[in-house]
Amino acid sequence: MVLKPQLKQNKRRLKIMRKIIASEFHMRKIMNSKPNMKTTTFVLSMLLSMLLSMLLAGVVSGQQKPTTGYAPVGGLKMYYEVHGSGDPVVLLHGAFMAISGDWNDWIGELSKTRKVIAVEMQGHGRTADIKRDLSYENLADDVAGLLDYLKIPSADIIGYSLGGGVAMQCAIRHPEKVRKVVSISAPFRQDGLVKEGLDAFPKLTPEAFKGSPIEIEYKKLSPTPDKFADLVNHIKAMASRPFDFGADKLKATKAPMFFVHGDADGVRLEHIAEMYRLNGGESHGDLRPRSASRLAILPDTTHVTLINRMTTIVPMVNDFLDAKPQKQ
Questions:
Q1: Which of 73, 163, 189, 191 is close enough to 159 for a disulfide, judged by CB 3.0 to 4.6 Å?
Q2: Residues with Cβ within 8 Å of residue 205, at least 6 apart in sequence
Q3: Which residues does 304 contact at the CB level (< 8 Å), separation at least 6?
Q4: Could you give the residue ranges of the DSSP H alpha helices within 34-113?
Q5: pLDDT digits (tens, 9 = 90+) for 310-321
Q6: How far is it, in rounded angstroms, from Cα 255 to Cα 299?
């Protein structure tokens, strides 16, 4: 006998599978008609990876309904959800993402022992875009404003891709509000990206997403469902604009940082080493107390597939966040 919750879960999984099949068909159609569109292929591969993550993780079982709301910060009405209880951790998504299948498995695992505050940043998900630059600095200030709104003095910050850069900026601009940072596949300077990654974003067009799950999800969640092209162009402008958080500023941050990367995630290995070095890395931990910051590079892992390495990454993240300062 199949219980009602199981039936609902099976229906949701079937729905996800249909999305995956539709996405694969969409990708093959574009590849067959325009085989040289590397940027389009990359984007659609990202979509498939995220949807597969949703299927493999299933629906977060036994999870209580989150507290939800909109925080008035930076001229936005920023959507957020609060899951679980314990020490607070803010979860920041990547570009074109939202609080949906791609983050639900992460939320489910982290909220077993922590209060997870998941947000949808400017122009993403249920948070409407506004006439303001999409920048790491602005988004970091929004996160600080959200913590004030929720009356949370300080929190750990976990960010992926765009969210990883925002997490680092939170530590730079609002050090009193950040306890520890986990940055997943993010550079602190534009030249930290490999050349082919730098070349891909300027070629991005709204048409590359036509009929894709990302566009469909945007139209489903956004208060401005007809403005998807504006979001693409906003992100494109942000990615094309030179940025540099400042090596001296990153080095001066007090919050320990855990840098998580794939060995083929589009961030230069020299740049990853530089970030870790600036945060106290490259010491001999057997001969003297080591830095509280950490580094992990996962083998056979790209920028997109990092999101699917949740079962590997989350235990390391929990260990990092739970670690007590070493005695000097």
A1: 163
A2: 232
A3: 42, 45, 46, 49, 50
A4: 38-57, 101-110
A5: 999 999 999 999
A6: 27
